[in-house]
Amino acid sequence: MIGYAFMGAVHSQAWRTVGHAFDLPVDVRLAAIGGRDSVAVKAAADRHGWAAFETDWRTLIARDDVAVVDICTPGDTHASIAIEALAAGKHVICEKPLANSVAEASMMADAAASAAARGVRSMVAFNYRRVPALAYARSLVASGRLGTLHHVRAAYQQDWLVDPAAPLTWRMQKERAGSGALGDIAAHIVDAAQFVVGDLLSGVSGMLETFVHSRPLSGGSGLSAASGGSGVGDVTVDDAAVFFGRFAGGGIATFEATRFATGRKNAMQLEIYGSGGGIRFDFERMNELQFFDGSLPDSENGFRRVLVTEGDHPYLEAWWPPGHPLGYEHTFTHEFRDFLLDVSSGQDPSPSFADGLQVQKVLAAVSQSAESGSGWVEV
Amino acid sequence: MIGYAFMGAVHSQAWRTVGHAFDLPVDVRLAAIGGRDSVAVKAAADRHGWAAFETDWRTLIARDDVAVVDICTPGDTHASIAIEALAAGKHVICEKPLANSVAEASMMADAAASAAARGVRSMVAFNYRRVPALAYARSLVASGRLGTLHHVRAAYQQDWLVDPAAPLTWRMQKERAGSGALGDIAAHIVDAAQFVVGDLLSGVSGMLETFVHSRPLSGGSGLSAASGGSGVGDVTVDDAAVFFGRFAGGGIATFEATRFATGRKNAMQLEIYGSGGGIRFDFERMNELQFFDGSLPDSENGFRRVLVTEGDHPYLEAWWPPGHPLGYEHTFTHEFRDFLLDVSSGQDPSPSFADGLQVQKVLAAVSQSAESGSGWVEV
Amino acid sequence: MIGYAFMGAVHSQAWRTVGHAFDLPVDVRLAAIGGRDSVAVKAAADRHGWAAFETDWRTLIARDDVAVVDICTPGDTHASIAIEALAAGKHVICEKPLANSVAEASMMADAAASAAARGVRSMVAFNYRRVPALAYARSLVASGRLGTLHHVRAAYQQDWLVDPAAPLTWRMQKERAGSGALGDIAAHIVDAAQFVVGDLLSGVSGMLETFVHSRPLSGGSGLSAASGGSGVGDVTVDDAAVFFGRFAGGGIATFEATRFATGRKNAMQLEIYGSGGGIRFDFERMNELQFFDGSLPDSENGFRRVLVTEGDHPYLEAWWPPGHPLGYEHTFTHEFRDFLLDVSSGQDPSPSFADGLQVQKVLAAVSQSAESGSGWVEV
Amino acid sequence: MIGYAFMGAVHSQAWRTVGHAFDLPVDVRLAAIGGRDSVAVKAAADRHGWAAFETDWRTLIARDDVAVVDICTPGDTHASIAIEALAAGKHVICEKPLANSVAEASMMADAAASAAARGVRSMVAFNYRRVPALAYARSLVASGRLGTLHHVRAAYQQDWLVDPAAPLTWRMQKERAGSGALGDIAAHIVDAAQFVVGDLLSGVSGMLETFVHSRPLSGGSGLSAASGGSGVGDVTVDDAAVFFGRFAGGGIATFEATRFATGRKNAMQLEIYGSGGGIRFDFERMNELQFFDGSLPDSENGFRRVLVTEGDHPYLEAWWPPGHPLGYEHTFTHEFRDFLLDVSSGQDPSPSFADGLQVQKVLAAVSQSAESGSGWVEV
C-alpha cells in the first residue's frame, strides 16, 4: 500500500479485517507500506500493522512479497505508480479519481487492459459501490423493481471548507488534485448513480464555483500539506460542482457536490425514481435504504426504511445479526473481498480502470461545459 | 372568486376561516363564485358557502358586492380577468403562475402598477411564502443567521403522472397551462427560494423532459378536462424540469420539478446553506424546519427539527398550542390575512404582479436554455 | 357550545367547516355559545362566528335553536351539564375526560343510555380517533394485518410545565380537573390504544408523580385561571403518569403521559406490534403512519411511511390531493361529521359515554394502583 | 477468549483492531480461544486470528501467554470461569448479564474486589456504554446540560422470536440463560440508563410475559443449541419484560424489553428528559444523538441530530472524518481500549463486577415484582 493518510488508515483496517470476515482462497498479509517521509511511514507501518515500509514506491513495487499494490496517494501520482506496478505484474487497486486527466486515465486503462491479458488485475476504488445498501439498491434496479428510469437526483454534501480559515491542502490545488469537489466527491456520485442505474451518462451541462479563493498555508509537510510553504495560497480548484445530464437509455439526472453545505458532514445522497418505484439513500445513515415499491396499493404505500443488515443482504453474511449497524470502513473490506475473489478466480474486478476512465470523461465534460457557458457536452 | 376546482375549494376554506382566525379591520363575506358550467358552479357555491354564483366572469367582476376578485382559473385566462378586474377597481388575487407568457405577465404587472396608483391592490398567490416554516426561514435568513449564501437546493417532487394511463387534463396542454411542471410547480420553488434568500436569480441553465407523450382523453368537461374530446391526446408540456442558476448577490442554486418522482406526493423541498448555517424544509412535513446554527460548538451541533408551532412563529398567534400541526389550507388563510391587512392599510401586498412577472422571466429563461442546448441564459 | 378557551376555538373552527367539507343530511348553524363572563363570551361569539351567546348554560340548553350541546368546559362541570342537556332532549358531545370520577361518569353513561332510548344521542370527544392516520391504523388492525397482538407502547409527551414558574391553572387543581396528565392526556392514549387494537385493558399497574408542588397563581379570571387568587398555589394533581397493563384478549401495554418531557410539544405516540406486523405513530407528524407489513420478504422490508393523505384514506375524500397535510383542527371536523351522520341516521355515535366511562375506570385503576404500591388492579 | 459464537466473532474483531486504532501502552496478541467442540473452536481460531485454541477453559486460563480472559459464554458458566480466572491472576472481561442469579453475581463481585486488591482487574461488558453517542450523552448529563432528571424512557426492541417456528436455543432456557429478554436486553437498558443518568434505580414494579411457550428443537449442538435434542421444547424464560422505577435521586423511568416488536431489529432506545433539556437515542442509528438544549429560545429550538462523528467526540480520535459512520463492533473496540488503559495504569475498569451485580439486583427485583402482582420492590 502506498499512502498513509486518511485513506491509508481506513484501507489498512480493511486489509487487516477482510481475511477474518470472509472466506477467501488466499491469505492476506500486510507486507509493506510506502511513503516519502521515513519517520511518518515507519510510524504508520507500526500503527496499522504493516510488516515493512518503503520510502520509494518503486522499491515497494519491486518487493517479492508484494502481490497487490494499493494506491492511496493524491491523483497526480496515480498514473505512474499504477502503470509501473501493472508492468511489474502486480495486481493494482487505485483510489479514485483514477487520474487527474482523461489523458492519464486513458493510459492507465490501456495499461490495465494489456495487463489483464497477462492475468494481472486492476480496480478503481469507488468504495461506495460496496455500501451494502447501494449494492442492494443495484440488485433491486437490476431485477426491474424500479421499472423504466425517469430520475436520478444525487448530491454529495460536506461542509469542511465553509470556514475561510481552513488551511490550504493539496486537495485544493489543481496540480495535485486535478479538481476539487468535482474529482473528489462528484466522482463518487457519478459512479454510484451509473452503477445503481446500470447505465451511463451520455451528456451533461454544468457549473463550477469557488467560494473562497485563497486560504492560509499550514506550513506543514507530508502528503496532506499543500505545496508552497507558509502564508496564503490560492485555491485553484472548485469548491462546488452542479450539473445535470441524460442517461444513454433515457432518464435524466442532477448532481451536486460541495464542501460548503453547512451542517452536512458526509451526506452522499442518491435518489432514483422509475416507473415502478423509488429509492432514496443518504450515507450519513449508511445502513438504511428507503424503498418505495410502486406495486403496492396507494393507501398503504410509502417509502420503507430497509435496514440493510439482514443476513441475505450483500456482504452481510460476514457480519452481525439484523439491526447491528456497519461502519464506513467496511465499504473497503467489501471492496477488497471482491477484488481478491476476482483475482483468485482469474476474473477482471469491477469497477475497472476503464470504468474509472469513463467517470473521468464525465467529469471532464462537466468542466468543459462549465468553461463554455454551461452548454451541453456529450460524454 | 373565479374557479371552483381544487384551488377553488381550498381558497373557499381559507376565505371562510380568515376572519375568524385573525383580527382584521374588514368583514369577509363570500359574495359570489364564478364558473362557466352553471350546474357545477351552483353546486360549488352551495358547498363552499358562497352567497351567489355567476357563469360570466365579467358579470361577477361588475357586482357591487364584490371588492376582491380571486382568480383560480387556468393560466390562459389570468391576464384578461385580472386586467379587467383591476380596471373595474377591484382588488385582485391571482393564482400562480401569473400568466402563461412573459408578455401577458408583463401586461398584468403594468395594469397592477397603474391600479396601485389608484389604490387598487393586487397579489400573485405564491402561497408557500405563507407556510409558517418558510416565513420563519425567511426571518432567520433576513436576520443574518445563515451568513453569506452559498447554496440553494430546491426540488418539487410529485408522482401523479407516473402512470401512463393517467388521463390528459388541461394541465398537460400547452395552450391552457403554458407549461407543465415548470409553470405549475417549479414556479413555486423559484419564488420560495428567492423569497427565503431575499435575492433574485440572475441566470439559469436548464433542461426539460416529457416522459409520456400521449395520454388518454377522459372525455369529461369542465375546467379540469383537456380540450379535444375522447381518444388519445398529446402531452404538449414538460413532465419535469431541471435547472441551475446563480443569484445576483452570489450563491448558486439547483432546481428540480417533476410529476414523475414515484413515491413523493407533494414534496416541495428547499435547502439553503450559507456561511453561518443551513436550512432544510420538506412540505410533506410542513410544520417542521430543520435548522443548523453554525455558531454552536461542532461537538453538540446538528440540524434541529424546529416545530414551527410556537406562539411567536409567523401566523401562529391565530392557532393552537405548540405541537398541534397546521394544514395546507392555512397557507391560503395566511395569504388572505396579509392581503386584507395590506389592502386595508393602503399598502401593496407581496408578492406583487411584478414579482410574478420576474418568476415568469426565470421560467422563460429555463425554457429558452432548454431549447438551445442548455446554455446559460440571463434572466 | 359551552366553553370558549382553546377547545372552544378549535371546536368552533370545526363546526364552521364540517358542513362545507362533507356532504351532510343536516345544515350546521352555530346557534349560541355559553360562558360565565359576558364580555369574554360575547367576544368569543363574534370571533368564532356564533349567532348568540349565553352566560348561563341552563339558558343555552333551553334555547329552541339549539339541537346539539357541545361541552368544552373543565371536567367538574361535565356531568351536570350533560345530564341536564340530555334530559332536555339535546344531543350532546362532551370533551374528555368524560368526568372527574367514575361515579360521575357512571351517572352520565346511565343518562346517555336512557336518552338513546328516546333517540337522543351522545358522544365523548376522544378526537384522536378521528386522526386519519389512526382511523386508518384501526382499519389495518381490524382487517387482521397485524395478526395477534403482542405489544402496545404508548406515550403522550408534552413539556409545558417544565418551567416551575409556569402559572397554576385549573388543569393543575384536583377539584377542577380531577387529575393532571392522567385525565388530560393519558386518557387520550388509553382510548386510542383500545380503539386501534379493538380490545379493552383488563388490569393495570401504575405510578403517578408530581415534580413541581407549588406554582405561582396568575391572579387572572375566566375558565383557564386557577381558583385562589394571587400568590402561590398548590399543584394537587400528577405531572406525569406511567403504567402498564394487559388487554383482555392478550397482549401487554405500557403507557407514559407527562407534561415534563422537555422538547416534546404534543407527542402523542402509539406503537403496536402483532404477529403480523407493526405500527408507529407520532401526532407531531399526524399525517404519517409508519407501517411494517410482516408478510413481505425480510430483505426488502422495513417500516414504511404512509402519508395518510390519499383519497381513499379515512375522511380524506373531503380534502386535498395526496401529500397536502391536514391540521389538528380536522380531528374535530371529522368527529362532528361522524356525530352528525349518526344522529341523522338514528345511530349511537362512538365513542359513547359508556366508552368514556370505561376509560375513566382504567384511569381510576391506575390511581388506585399508584396509591397502593403499584400493585396490580383489575379494571 | 472463551466462546466463539456471535459474541466471540465480534469480540475477536475488536481485539484485532484495538491496538491499531488506539495508542496503547501494551501490545495486544490474540493468544488462545476456548470452546468445548474441538473442530468448531479450531475453525473459529483460524477464522478469527487466534494463535491457539483450547477445549478446556481451565487449561486456557492456565496458559502463560494469557493475561486477559474474555468470557463470551452463556450466563450459567460466568461465575465459575471468572472466579477461577481471577484467582489465577488473570484480568477478566465478562459478558453481561454478569450471572444468572444475584447469588452468583455477588460471589463474582466479591472475587473481583479481592482480586483488585492484588492488582487483578475485571469488567462486565456492557458495551453500549461505549457507543460514542451514549458516552457523549453521559458527558452532557454530567456537565448539567439536562438539569434535574424527570424522565427516562427506555426500550430494547427486537423481533427475532415473533415467528413461533423459530427454534429453541439456550437463550430461551432458564437453566442456561437465567432469564429471557430481561437478562439479555433489559440488562443493557438498565445499565445504559443508570450510566447516562449517573444514578441508580431504587425500586421497580414489573411484568414479564411469554408469548410462545414451546418451540421446535433444532437438534443442533454447540453453544447456541438448546439442551434437549430434537422435537419440541419448552420456553422457560420471558419473551418480554416491562417495568417502571424510580431513581434514588429523583426522576422516574419506564423500561420495555422484547423480542416480539415486529419490524424492530435491534432498537435499543433511550430517552432522557430533565429540567434543562432532553436526549433521544436509537441504536439502529447508533451514530446519532438527538439533543434538545432547553436554554435556546423556544422559537428556534428543537431536537438536533448530533452526528457523533466529530474528532472531539468520545473515542472518535481513532476514526474517520465527520459524517463517516462507525459500526457496532467498535463498541467492543472502545471497551477493550478502556479496559487495557485501566489495567495498564492500575485502575479498576468500569463497569465493575459490582456494577454488574447492581444491575442483576434490579433484574431480580423486576422478576420478584412480576411474580407478586407487580407490586413495588425496592432494589
Radius of gyration of chain A: 21 Å
CATH class of the largest domain in chain A: Alpha Beta
* CATH domain topology of the largest domain in chain A: Dihydrodipicolinate Reductase, domain 2
Residue share in β-strands of chain A: 15-25%
Helix-strand category of chain A: alpha/beta
Mean pLDDT of chain A: 95
Separate helix tally of chain A: 10
Coarse morphology of chain A: globular
Q: Tell me the distance between the termini of chain A.
A: 33 Å
* Low-confidence segments of chain A: none
Oligomer: homotetramer
CATH architecture of the largest domain in chain A: 2-Layer Sandwich
* Order of the strands making up the biggest sheet of chain A: 15-14-13-12-6-11-10-7-16
Order of helices and strands of chain A: HEHEHEHEHEHEHHEEEEEEEEEHHE
Helix fraction of chain A, binned, reads 25-40%
InterPro entries (chains A, B, C, D): Gfo/Idh/MocA-like_OxRdtase_N, Gfo/Idh/MocA_oxidrdct_glycsds, GFO_IDH_MocA-like_dom, NAD(P)-bd_dom_sf
Domain GFO/IDH/MocA-like oxidoreductase (chains A, B, C, D): 136-280
Protein name (chains A, B, C, D): Gfo/Idh/MocA family oxidoreductase
GO molecular function, one term (chains A, B, C, D): oxidoreductase activity
